[in-house]
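Example A, followed by Example B.
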Amino acid sequence: MKPTLFVLAAGMGSRYGGLKQLDGVGPDGETIMDYSVYDAIQAGFGKIVFVIRHSFEKEFKEKIVSKYENKIQVKLVYQELDYLPDGFTLNPDREKPWGTNHALLMGKEVIKEPFAIINADDFYGRQSFELLAGQLKNMADKKYSYCMIGYLLGYTLSEGGSVARGICEIDKDSYLTEIVERTNIESVDGVPCFTGENGQKVNLSSSTPVSMNMWGFTPDYFDLSEFAFIDFLERNKDNLKAEFLIPTLVNTLVEQKRISVKLIPTPSKWFGVTYATDKPDVVRRIQELIEERVYPDKLFG
């Protein structure tokens, strides 16, 4: 059974200033998503599922999905604010999306096999997809035993501004023991650091493993997520900005010893378009990979 790639593409990217998932960075207008799909096909994934919003469905189908016809099976699912469990209604003042783990729940009806989940606007690298596909193919008969691709912090920073990263702690066997979301991470004089609770700068090692939201799950994670989302909604009735996030739930389940998560280190260097000023660097790096013959000039020509 081939694994599925689940792509989170429902966000608008407020800091970037537009629908960055549809922004071309390759010589033939390829998006970062296109390179992820190409790498996934090469790595042996058998299906792509995109979670989007109905508001840009037509444009997404025309600009993205049409490229993959006869290349790989593609399905679309949708994330909207009012997609809530029975018994819950949307607060009319709620504007912020529910978060990545809510988006993940939208795939339950179409994903019945081990699957990877990634962000649409992150470039993960061919080796990361190969490593994850290999691990997922060994997970078909397992439950509550997951994995994630771990990047070196120094390979994930943006020159355009500060970033948020999931800082990972692992045991001697490379299983996740804790993941802590750190915000405002930036390089100061070549040293990564974040701003602590008291406003002081706290240094981090460039070799610190971090999560870039590249996870490997089996379908039982949907059931865990459904129960957790109900609990989340009950606890956050009056919080209009609370988000139901994958790293947060994974960390809770790890602490409760209900799941195990193997961290798989990757040599790949991440890049993406967190900020609009990041785009020229992404275009340059893509061109370098084309010149190195990692990718053809036209991915799906």
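Example B, a separate protein, is given below in the same form.
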Amino acid sequence: MSQALVRIAAGWLLGLMLAVAGSVVAINVVNKSIAGPQQPVREYLDALQKGEGGKAIGLLRASVPQSSAAMLDGTALQTAAARIRDVKFGEAEERAGNQVMVPLDYTIDGNRLRTEFLLEESGTEWLFFHKWSFIPAALPVLDVTVVNSNEATLNGVPVNMPNGRNSFAVFYPGEYEATLSGEYFSAPPTRATLSGRDVPAAPLNLLTEATGALKDAVSGKVKEFLDSCADEADKQQQLQPDCPFYHATNNRVVPGTIDWSITEYPAVSIEPFGGRWVVAPLDGKARIKARTVDLFTGAVSEINVVQDFSFTTRLDLEADTVKLTPLLSY
């Protein structure tokens, strides 16, 4: 009877020892996986990709610097994280002050990048499972400028650009793209990749240019002005009309023979200058035809001359209206 009891007791003891050993192994496995320091990083990256800015800030324990918060949620945030590919969570490495560093390797647009996150143990759950938290820090800031515009688009979201500039608090890692696309002004897209809090991104500078639509609109108004000016000069029979072109002669002009025409219309170039958009000097050619009489000899001669001319204008844009004011000097 005693031997049977001993065997039973030994069986129970062995089972208990195996259960304890299994529990220790299970606890270690959990602490290295779902309760490991990589888990908050996984949750943070997932929040970025879902555009959940509030959750991401809470996980990162981040403070938001004085700047625009337009990139911290929704579509803008999802777009920033959309190009993150080939993600690999590295093993945690011990750092001073009971901290650990979790490396995150990934690619953006085919470029291999790494972000290092610092975390600290912040307690336990159910007595055995570790809790990890990010070391608090401020979010980085991305500076954006745009020439002669008070608005732009950043990661697909329209943003205000007071006096052509603004600063945006951003999450990392991520990619940010600024563009300007309008009927009359546009700028080619420019991108910045942010891989870490302490790796500042280069400012995004949008170099605004006049679109073909604006140049066509201005060219049309220039042509309209010159054609109208030539027609009026013909009606008034003037060699020196209120136009950019004129002709001087000492002979008497035969009435009804003056005929002005534009042979070469100016090429339009629009550039930013002093916070405005200016039209470069407009150079063209006009032909004057007329019949004149020599005051001394009475001889009749024909005028058929092409004159070079040049003038400047003031360009005003109000909403969708293009206004061009010729500035003529005599």
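On Example B: The chain has three domains: 21-138, 141-210, 212-327.
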